[in-house]
TrEMBL record:
InterPro entries (alphabetical): Nucleotide-bd_a/b_plait_sf, PTBPH1/PTBPH2_RRM1, RBD_domain_sf, RRM_dom
Organism: Genlisea aurea
Protein's recorded name: RRM domain-containing protein
Keywords for this protein: RNA-binding
Gene3D superfamilies per UniProt: 3.30.70.330
Amino acid sequence: LSVLWGMSSVSSQPQFRYTQPPSKVLHLRNLPWECSEEELVELGKPFGKVINTKCNVGANKNQAFIEFADLNQAIAMISYYASSSEPAQVRGKNVYLQYSNRQEIVNNKTTADVAGNVLLVTIEGNDARLVSIDVLHLVFSAFGFVHKITTFEKTAGFQALVQFSDTETASSAKEALDGRSIPR
């Protein structure tokens, strides 16, 4: 895998965004050091469903990739910040966006569904909004210690990020709960 970082970005920030054809993967630069996956998901959340991220890339670990479920969501994010007077920001730092030259994020692991310790949970159905953080905590803590739960509403429905202490716990929760109903 070879990745080239364009040095022209320094002298021509604005038009640098448009040098790539649209992709559902966006390349972000000038991020705060050790930016987290959660922060990237938060940044992309208003525009659509972020299905994958790759943090802390580049020589200075201040670049990242975010992949949306749909091309139009990535276009919406680029278009919004291209026309906005407010730049994209993470922890008060201006972040520069452009389309990536890749069409998907490939993490250097053997499985396509890369295991991590954070699960993105989508609660579907008419009663989705009635599911509280307490209920989610109860359901997911049956598998192990839950560090953090963040909930948000998207066009896809009611979603939550559930963070476990380790990948194994998250994997077993995903295996057991994916596609299941949450009991009342």
